[in-house]
Amino acid sequence: MADRRRPVDDDALAHLRASDPVLCGIIDRCGPGGLRERPDRQQTEHYAALVRSIVGQQLSTKAAAAIHARLLSRFEGRDPTPEQILADDPEELRAAAGLSRAKVQFLRSLAQHVLNGTLELERLNELDDEAVISELTTVKGIGVWSAHMFLMFHLRRPDVLAVGDLGIRRSMMLAYGLPELPAPAIMEQIAAPWRPHRTLACRYLWQALDNEPA
Which of 6, 31, 51, 120 is deepest in the core (most CB within 10 A)? Predict the structure, then answer.
């Protein structure tokens, strides 16, 4: 698979370097020439991106991609619509795609919210970050972590701190010499100087963790 990289904004990078010497060191080690793009975040349509997010919860990237591919195969290689999800037999969908029963329920909850207008996907681009989180977390199975990932990788919002992400917490712990995984309040304190570019900082923290020796 090609190594997709998203160019890094020079102004954002300069801000992060100047604001935090620890993060500056991470950037130097990882390199400023562009960060790897996550292959599971290439979807451009909101509904399909949320479906993929639900499918991939608590799975490795490889396992998530395999299950998502089986889901698409069930719908002739296309992203399923809300109508198709609700029309499908839940047990048959679960077996065909290799989904858990809980994830089938989550997919059906998403479809129901979209069709009954509770979740207005076309409005998400217009809402601020907190409002997007509030909207998405009305859906069963979409929590704050999933909403943060949607903001960061789908809507490309620049100032999101994924306080619930284990990778970010572990990377912070290692980089800042913390005795344990940091609580959200500590993470917010550390990340305060990074504003308004906390998304980019998180991406460097993820890459730093990927670069750690096994």
Answer: 51
Retrieve residue 119's tokens: 């979740």
Please provide the CATH number assigned to the domain covering 8-37+159-210.
1.10.1670.40
Q: Which CATH class is domain 40-154?
A: mainly alpha
Per-residue model confidence (pLDDT) at position 81: 96
Neighbours of 31 (CB within 10 A): 12
- Residue pair 126/162 in contact (Cβ under 8 Å)? The answer is no
| pLDDT tens profile 7-44 | 678 899 999 999 999 999 999 998 865 566 654 445 56
CA dist 125 and 112 (Å) reads 21
For residue 196, cis peptide bond before it (omega within 30 degrees of 0): yes
Report DSSP state, residue 138. Answer: T
Helix-helix angle 198-210:10-19, to 10 degrees: 80
pTM over 0.90: no
Beta-strand relationship, 35-36 and 5-6: antiparallel
